[in-house]
Recover the amino acids of this structure.
């Protein structure tokens, strides 16, 4: 093959092209990215979180070990009305322990420090010393501390536990005297969170996401954003402020959201990794029946009643004030400042709606929200939705509405087969460039029914991403979905990054995202590809994308070969200016049965140079200017 760059046809492309989409699906938040180690710390698990599971209630993950003590749940005089349930331990004779199982256990690492905290009170005023232990399956104490509870009123108690060994453990709280003890918000965090944040994120997982170098993060969904009924719509105000005052909620993926990972933490994570925040809020309608895969239960036609839309729109405007408002002069800016962030978060993008059915109910509410944001915050870039791509009426209607209102950007979703992606690499080449509306490809992934993601799906995504770079003048942002999945708790497959309590297992597709994220450009340099074999099927399995990063001046050549044979390629870079003779090359290649890792080396290059592309491979060559 020959690939000849045509620098005279260069065009600017979006600098936000590659981002990440975080949704609390597959235990991505509690038990996942959120570093809290205690499951159901607030005793707010509710039978409605998971229909048909008789163990799913306030005592979930908790148990009493030993005798002469009782463990019940009460709601009288709670720590906060949003957090009504708490544990009551009645100790007749010391010895028994209240045990928490964690999320599949509590993984300790030798020498690491863990922050233990809880709200507690002794209603009878009789002080009680507690031993707090982390115990492994054999009963060995792997870390411990103690503290005394003496307050009749709710009070926070804190201690630090150092792990004596690396072990999988559970928590035991062991009162040393008889009497009644009330407990709530029982929490254990590693001190070593991502960037050392309190109430922070699991370091290895957060770093794996950061390594993609996502230019934005969309959150909190997906279906989680609009919920599967009016009561299940994600309300950002319930997710900020003191943890004990946040309002937990059923997660429509069949579990519980503690909201410990809430809007403050999402914005902070974005800031920590230099990504633009892209919060998505419901367009006044919940996930409507089939748009939400039909089987999630609770599906509900209809939107927020018109009598309540004013308040709902105000909540959205308040979010913008919370993110960007002055810390002293605005009500919501003050709330942000009190939470520890006086400086504005500089929110520029706000998503309204997620993969909705584009009904009259939707259109009416979306229009109201869109107009209200435009009026109060004309600089805000509203990202609308055009429903799932299915060539059906929603997609068409969604686009009609976007055109009519002049929505600056719309969110498109498609989960498709490798064949679909191969045959649709011209999807945005055909885009009507006279339109004002840009595209956010907010959810996409290559799916092979019944099979895991592999090099074939990953290279299909690499091919498609080449077409997205080529169309980076209209496609402003993209994000693979879903991002995270905890092993044994997965509702959706495939996902980009699998994990358990100790390991992070990125898929081959992850490395494609990372290579694109780390080698993004701001200028697209078109190239002419000539293949020896002129068959269209062959042509569709080979792609190149050449971009220049204006910050470094580097030119990046990406070459994708989804053919079962090696392709000798001559790259002609004439006209791009003088370059360094040695360049970094990264190659991701393997058989469909492998889970390969990218391999880096350095190669000699010239204005024209040869490069052998292995069968089934993705090659990235990063060239520095001379
Ligand atoms: O990414 C998983 C789900 O797919 C999202 O929640 C939803 O938007 C889409 O249907």
């Amino acid at each position: 093959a020959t690939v000849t760059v045509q620098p005279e046809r260069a065009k600017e492309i979006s600098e936000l092209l590659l981002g990440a989409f975080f949704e609390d699906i597959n235990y991505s938040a509690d038990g996942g990215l959120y570093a809290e180690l205690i499951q159901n710390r607030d005793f707010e698990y509710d039978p409605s979180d998971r229909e048909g599971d008789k163990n799913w209630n306030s005592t979930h993950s908790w148990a009493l070990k030993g005798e002469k003590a009782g463990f019940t749940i009460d709601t009288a005089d709670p720590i906060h009305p949003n957090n009504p349930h708490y544990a009551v331990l009645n100790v007749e004779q010391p010895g028994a322990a209240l045990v928490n199982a964690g999320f599949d256990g509590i993984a300790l690492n030798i020498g690491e420090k863990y922050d233990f905290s809880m709200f507690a009170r002794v209603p009878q005023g009789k002080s009680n010393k507690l031993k707090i232990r982390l115990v492994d399956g054999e009963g060995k104490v792997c870390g411990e501390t103690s503290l005394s509870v003496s307050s009749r009123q709710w009070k926070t108690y804190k201690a630090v536990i150092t792990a004596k060994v690396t072990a999988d453990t559970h928590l035991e709280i062991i009162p040393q005297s008889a009497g009644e003890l009330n407990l709530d918000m029982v929490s254990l965090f590693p001190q070593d969170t991502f960037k050392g944040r309190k109430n922070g994120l699991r370091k290895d997982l957060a770093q794996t996401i950061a390594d993609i170098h996502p230019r934005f993060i969309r959150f909190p969904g997906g279906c989680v954003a609009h919920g599967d009924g009016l009561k299940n719509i994600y309300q950002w105000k319930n997710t900020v402020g003191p943890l004990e005052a946040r309002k937990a909620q059923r997660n429509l993926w069949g579990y519980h959201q503690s909201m410990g990972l809430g809007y403050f933490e999402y914005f902070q994570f974005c800031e920590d990794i230099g990504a633009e925040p892209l919060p998505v809020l419901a367009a006044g309608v919940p996930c409507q029946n089939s748009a939400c895969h039909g089987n999630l239960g609770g599906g509900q036609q209809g939107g927020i009643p018109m009598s309540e839309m004013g308040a709902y729109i105000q909540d959205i405007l308040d979010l913008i004030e919370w993110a960007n408002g002055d810390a002293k002069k605005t009500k919501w800016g003050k709330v942000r400042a009190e939470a520890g962030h006086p400086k504005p978060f500089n929110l520029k993008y706000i998503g309204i709606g997620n993969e909705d059915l584009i009904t009259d109910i939707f259109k009416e509410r979306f229009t109201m929200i869109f107009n209200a944001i435009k009026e109060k915050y004309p600089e805000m870039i509203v990202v609308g939705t055009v429903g799932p791509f299915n060539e059906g009426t929603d997609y068409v209607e969604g686009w009609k509405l976007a055109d009519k209102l002049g929505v600056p950007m719309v969110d498109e979703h498609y989960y498709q087969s490798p064949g679909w992606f191969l045959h649709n690499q011209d999807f945005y080449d055909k885009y009507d460039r006279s339109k004002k509306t840009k595209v956010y490809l907010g959810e996409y992934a290559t799916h092979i029914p019944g099979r895991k993601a592999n090099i074939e799906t990953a290279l299909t995504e690499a091919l498609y991403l080449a077409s997205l770079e080529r169309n980076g003048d209209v496609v402003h942002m993209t994000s693979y979905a879903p991002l995270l999945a905890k092993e044994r708790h997965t509702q959706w497959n495939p996902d980009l990054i699998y994990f358990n309590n100790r390991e992070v297992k990125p898929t081959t597709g992850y490395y494609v995202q990372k290579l694109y994220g780390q080698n993004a450009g701001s200028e697209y340099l078109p190239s002419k590809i000539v293949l020896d074999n002129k068959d269209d099927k062959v042509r569709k399995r080979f792609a190149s994308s050449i971009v220049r990063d204006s910050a470094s001046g580097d030119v990046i050549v990406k070459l994708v070969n989804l053919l079962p044979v090696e392709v000798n390629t001559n790259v002609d870079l004439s006209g791009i200016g003088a370059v360094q003779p040695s360049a970094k090359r990264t190659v991701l290649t393997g058989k469909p049965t492998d889970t390969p890792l990218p391999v880096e080396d350095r190669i000699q290059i010239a204005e024209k140079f040869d490069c052998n592309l292995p069968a089934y491979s993705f090659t990235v060559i990063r060239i520095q200017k001379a």
User: Anything to note?
Assistant: The chain is about 20% helix and 30% strand. Residues 20-32+194-409+500-518 form a domain with the TIM Barrel fold (CATH 3.20.20.80).
